[in-house]
Automatic annotation (TrEMBL):
The organism of origin for this protein: Litoribrevibacter albus
Name of the protein: EAL domain-containing protein
Residues covered by the EAL domain: 1-252
Whole-protein residues included: 572 to 823 of 846
Coiled coil: none
């Protein structure tokens, strides 16, 4: 209960902030997109990670308010970078199954994207979004698509029914879970899974992002197998929004 009221205060006082993790295109090497990762900048305790407050917020209504804040604040950051001449980037936002069914979500997307092309925003959802309420989820996805907003299946391969979702839903991007990337050096099985998913995704006209790139070997392997984009600690850690302009100004 104490945490709950502290979290409501945090929302009202805008104590949340975003860390942005770059995604790089593997053909050109360009940074073209950032994933927004929320943190709570607690006035006394410092930076608190999402696994310490998202589950609590998921119990009630606060998670909806947080989700809408991440979208509007994240897009404001993207606008700020563009105005400062630091580049035009896409923003990817994580939405839980419940957040994706927020009945104010689509109106909020539309409002936030008044002065920006819809395809500057991507929604990262996990496979369990569809277990929750698959008809509603499919309808939200279509409405998002109509605004130009793209949808990525996060942690791809770790849930169940992944393949039927690919067939049924207007998903644009597959994010290959890092548990498949990590063992590619040692395990031929993992290499087969990764290359087959890339191949399948491309045959279905989908874009593939690999997450959890931690070694040069991972990067080379994915480049060699035509993965579209990559993200991971080797390339960049998530960057504090306050430090982002400086990091970009200094260049790669
Ligand atoms: O860096 P990291 O510890 O941020 O993230 C841990 C987990 O929290 C990841 O699974 C990530 O998807 C999730 N997460 C980070 N930011 C958000 C957010 O804004 N909304 C939701 N629903 N999950 C988030
Ligand atoms: O569930 P989701 O894929 O949204 O998770 C994002 C989480 O992954 C964040 O906690 C982020 O800090 C973490 N992350 C990003 N890159 C790497 C990486 O290369 N290795 C590991 N272990 N975690 C990563
Ligand atoms: Mn994600
Ligand atoms: Na993921």
């Amino acid at each position: 209960l104490e945490l709950e009221s502290a979290l409501q205060t945090a929302l009202d006082n805008e104590e949340f902030c975003l860390f942005l993790q770059p995604k790089y295109r593997l053909d050109s090497g360009d940074l073209d997109s950032f994933e927004a990762l929320v943190r709570w900048r607690h006035p006394e305790k410092g930076l608190i990670m999402p696994n310490h407050f998202i589950p609590q917020m998921e119990q009630g209504e606060m998670i909806f308010q947080l989700g809408r804040w991440v979208i509007s604040h994240g897009l404001n950051i993207i606008r700020g970078l563009e105005r400062a001449g630091l580049g035009s980037y896409k923003l990817a936002v994580n939405l839980s199954a419940r957040q994706f069914c927020d009945d104010k979500l689509v109106d909020h997307l539309q409002a936030c994207l008044q002065d920006m092309p819809g395809d500057r925003l991507e929604l990262e959802i996990t496979e369990n979004v569809l277990i929750h309420n698959s008809e509603l989820a499919a309808s939200v996805m279509k409405q998002a698509n109509n605004l130009g907003v793209t949808v990525a299946l996060d942690d791809f391969g770790t849930g169940y029914s992944s393949l039927s979702y690919l067939r049924q839903l207007p998903v644009d991007v597959i994010k290959l879970d890092r548990s498949f990337i990590a063992p590619t050096n040692e395990s031929e099985e993992s290499r087969h899974i990764v290359t087959s998913v890339i191949d399948l995704a491309h045959k279905l006209n989908k874009y593939v992002v690999a997450e959890g790139i931690e070694t040069k070997e991972h990067l080379l392997f994915l480049q060699e197998h035509q993965c579209d984009s990559a993200q991971g600690f080797l390339l960049s850690r998530p960057i504090d929004e306050d430090e982002l302009p400086d990091v970009l100004a200094k260049g790669d």
